[in-house]
Amino acid sequence: MSESPVSAEENRSPRKIILAALVVSRFATQPPAILTGLLLIDIGLTFGSSVGVTGQIRTASAMASVIFALLMGALSVRFNHKSLLMMGLLFLSISALGSGLASNFSMMLVLYSITGLGIAMATPMGLTLVGEHFSLEKRPSAIGWIMTGAAVSYLICAPAIGLIADFGGWRLAFLGFVLPICVLAFLLAAKGLPVTSEGSHSVISLGSYFEGFKRVFSNRSADACLVGTALSWSAWQAILLYSSSFYRQRFLVSTGFASVLLMGAAVCFTVGNLVSGRLTKRFGRKPFTVLSALFTGIFVISYTNVSNLWLSVVLSFLGSLFSGMRFTASNSLTLEQSPGYRGTMMSISTAADQAGAALGAAVGGLLLLLLNYEGMAADLNRDWACLAGCLNGNVIAALCRLGKAGDPRVRKAVEHLLSFQEPDGGWGCRSFGYHKRDKHSCFMGAICALEGLVEYTEHRGTKSVHRAVKNACEFLLMHRLYKADHHRWTIIKDDFTKRSAPWMVSYNILRALKVITRAGVADERMTDALHLLLAKRNSKGRWIREAPWPSATYSSFGSIGVEDKWVTLNALLILKRDNSRI
């Protein structure tokens, strides 16, 4: 199949309509990744999984895309390219609907993986149709606009998804935003793209299916393009997936600010796409692809290894700028490697894209699982207390009691606290080097964090905060507040049953009952702790102090073994909230 002017095709349907349909189609492939990158923490909290584990939905999607993209190399020879593009958009719609309705993490993993099938079909067919409907000299510009569609999606989708998620959670973002966009792209492709004879053959031999693969893999230049694509995507996709979580946890920025950073990166990426067409013509496809990839790598590595927020943002924006240039130049170069088998070439290129994406997501998730964010913080000079649930929770509680719950800095602290809640619902103190080998959270970290969130919900609070409170209460309740659930319900620590108040970071059943009842929880698993509390009430209806104040103070809070007003006050508050026990 030789290179042809394609002017007849251009006359059959206006080029602007064709380009608009292809741009919107590429736009529609991006919202799922934007949503999961921006709301990965929130999705993990819903299913009780860590950021590293939750990120593997992207790994599964990428692997599905790799496998199906290779199959597309054969399908593109047999079936019409427009039909394959529309089928890809249909898969994206199904995935958005299913992900938004997923009831557990396993279902989410399977349904989100369908996104990979949609990307494996829509992405290569969109670029293949450029070769069918645009002449050689116009293709770099057309590809630049299509890649701009992908970048503009970050500019539009990031703030929209953040706003919708704040209102109705990540599920509403899938169903009320991602799904309609995919359906719109499907309808526009159906109306705006003409049907061509390329890639549509009623009868074809088995050997012809594999001829395209043979032509591509026997071309050393094409092979080099594929390897370079996979390596570039490996680094870049890991940043796309984890960067929002990185900024939210490393620099304590809010979800809204993280979405603004995505918008800024999208603007830079868009500029890179638009200027790349001219620069590619000036310097040549191959030299400019190599040069832009080199600068992308330098800035991507740099921005994750600086401790200043604004310097990090500048470096990431520069990385986005050169990445936009690289995407356009690389796709333009790849498109011309096998002119007679563009569908196969671009399908294999998409497989290389997604293989790199899977590698980046998997390696990034593995590092998070092994090191957690505090492990990364050691290299980034993060403050040692940032990931201590006890200190963060106590500070939030104190500021809320002082009437500062509405302060943006308190909201930022709450979002940060939610960002490192453990899968079991509690919190740890790994910043201090504690609990590194524990398989469960720290009771002291959990009760302090829970108390801070309960105080916050009495003034403010979103669905994600209320969900975190519910999960934290469940962590304490599954231990009956003081018993080992895997060791025949033995008492975990004698100090847990001793009454003292006030508290700093200490844990006992008095504090646990006070916080849980204040959260409005009434559960049968509290019974043992309540009976123990009632059993220690004396004939005057008062309680004695059994443990000392856990820290040095300027004044005394009572003596051990005598009636204590602080202990008695908190015990009576508990019983008042739990009316059935009075």
Topology (elements, then pairings):
Layout: H1 7-12, H2 15-28, H3 31-38, H4 40-47, H5 51-54, H6 56-78, H7 81-101, H8 105-133, H9 139-192, H10 206-217, H11 220-250, H12 255-283, H13 285-303, H14 309-335, H15 342-380, H16 389-401, H17 408-419, H18 443-457, H19 463-477, H20 509-518, H21 527-535, H22 565-577
Polypeptide structure, described:
The protein is an all-alpha fold and 582 residues long. It folds into two domains: 14-194 and 207-378, MFS general substrate transporter like domains (Growth Hormone, Chain: A), CATH 1.20.1250; 389-581, no CATH class. The protein is built from 22 helices and no strands. The chain has helices at 7-12, 15-28, 31-38, 40-47, 51-54, 56-78, 81-101, 105-133, 139-192, 206-217, 220-250, 255-283, 285-303, 309-335, 342-380, 389-401, 408-419, 443-457, 463-477, 509-518, 527-535, 565-577. The longest helix has 54 residues, at 139-192. The radius of gyration is 28 Å and the shape is elongated.
Which regions contain 5 or more consecutive residues with pLDDT less than 50? 1-12, 199-206, 372-385
Which overall shape is indicated by the principal axes computed on the Cα atoms? elongated
What share of the residues does DSSP label as strand, in percent? under 5%
Radius of gyration, CA atoms, in whole angstroms: 28 Å
Give the name of the CATH superfamily of the largest domain: MFS general substrate transporter like domains
Which structural class matches the secondary elements?
Answer: mainly alpha
Distance between the termini: 87 Å
Work out the number of β strands: 0
Number of domains: 2
- SSE string, helices as H and strands as E: HHHHHHHHHHHHHHHHHHHHHH
Helix content: over 70%
Give the CATH architecture of the largest domain.
Up-down Bundle
Kindly state the mean pLDDT as a whole number?
Answer: 78
- Profile the largest sheet: none
Kindly identify the CATH topology of the largest domain: Growth Hormone, Chain: A
